[in-house]
Write a structure and sequence with these properties.
The structure holds 2 protein chains of 2 kinds. Chain A is of the alpha+beta class. Chain A has one domain: Nuclear Transport Factor 2, Chain: A (Roll), CATH 3.10.450. Chain A contains 4 helices and 7 strands; from the N terminus they run ααβαββαββββ. Chain A has a 7-stranded mixed β-sheet. In chain A, a hairpin with a 4-residue loop joins strand 2 and strand 3. Chain B starts with a helix and ends with a strand. Classes of the chains: A alpha+beta, B alpha+beta. At the A-B interface, strand 4, strand 5 and strand 6 of A face strand 10 of B.
């Protein structure tokens, strides 16, 4: 009985240690992936939503960015820099155009040019239904630049990688 | 198969040998289906009528290990990884000039017969040259407006393989 009790206590301590390790010693890759999941979660939309909720989500997305963000979408000839303060209104405007939005990220490829900088290549799947009823199902390869600011990884650049160039 | 053998086949003894066999089969399956025969499901109508929405297939990654991709080969093109891939047909190789005129494919200025295309919309695309180490890929379904069809040239290193059937 004593052995069983000791084994149980040891198992609980080991499990707690594993959980603590996962919570407190996340790798940079895991922390960055979490940012993408957060972005997808806040971009998600299912039907109409209250203006305040939409504004809150847009603000939460803005918090994922830092400084002046460079956005490059060569397939639409877009190359511009957007100050962080302008991200929230633009997200609000973009999300308002759709009834439903789903954003998913796959195949993360991490490179760290320095300790404070990361470039993440990934595949993004954007599914949406516009207010007019038109459905969108688009896939992009994207290279995102993030910087570590006060131990927090924040987006500073988003670039579309052209897989097929006409 | 006798009743006893069938019972043993369906409900084997969970001994060390059996567990080892399970592990070996598991590792073998991971290697085969992650690196050699990547399973995929067709989504959309870009390759209709050759491949249909919902079709299941495998991308054979060793297809171009020795020989380079050729014109009319159907290939899988990766994005950042192999979780999401495009299924397209190669219509031109590096150095060749590609154009569409009233829906018909022109390579180096000559009209190319495409028996896999059933119906076509009047696509018009000005001539362009395929870059070095690139191929030009397009879907078989030309019965859609050109602006909505995803096609163009892609580096050969993005080709992960060819569908098994």
């Amino acid at each position: 009985m004593v052995n069983l009790k000791n084994s149980l206590i040891a198992a609980i301590i080991a499990a707690a240690a594993v959980v603590a390790f996962l919570v407190f010693f996340q790798s940079d890759e895991a922390k960055i992936k979490k940012k993408f999941h957060h972005l997808a979660e806040k971009a998600h939309k299912n039907g109409s939503e209250h203006d305040l909720i939409a504004a809150k989500k847009a603000h939460q997305i803005e918090q994922l960015f830092f400084g002046t963000v460079r956005i490059q979408i060569p397939s639409y000839s877009v190359d511009k820099t957007v100050p962080r303060s302008e991200i929230s209104p633009q997200v609000l405007y973009a999300r308002a155009r759709y009834q439903n939005i789903s954003l998913k990220f796959h195949d993360f490829q991490f490179t760290f040019p320095s300790e404070e900088k990361a470039v993440v290549g990934l595949t993004g799947i954007f599914k949406a239904v516009a207010a007019s009823g038109e459905a969108f199902n688009e896939i992009y390869e994207v290279a995102c630049t993030l910087e570590k600011i006060d131990n927090d990884w924040l987006f500073t650049g988003i670039k579309e990688v052209e897989v097929l160039e006409r | 198969m006798t009743g006893n053998k069938l019972q043993k086949f369906l409900f084997p003894d969970l001994n060390r040998k059996f567990l080892l066999r399970i592990i070996v089969v598991g590792i073998f399956a991971v290697i085969v289906f992650k690196y050699l025969l990547i399973p995929f499901q067709v989504e959309g109508f870009s390759m209709a009528p050759t491949y249909h929405d919902g079709d299941v297939n495998f991308s054979f990654t060793l297809k171009y290990l020795i020989s380079p991709p050729e014109r009319f080969d159907v290939v899988t093109v990766r994005f950042s990884g192999t979780r999401v891939m495009l299924l397209k047909r190669i219509i031109a190789l590096e150095g060749e000039t590609v154009a569409f005129e009233n829906g018909f494919l022109l390579v180096n200025g000559r009209k190319i017969n495409e028996p896999y295309v059933s119906e076509r919309q009047p696509w018009d695309l000005a001539p362009r040259t395929v870059k070095k180490d690139h191929v030009y890929v397009v879907g078989d379904n030309r019965n859609v407006p050109m602006r909505t069809h995803h096609f163009g040239q892609t580096p050969i290193h993005r080709i992960t393989g060819a569908p098994l059937w």
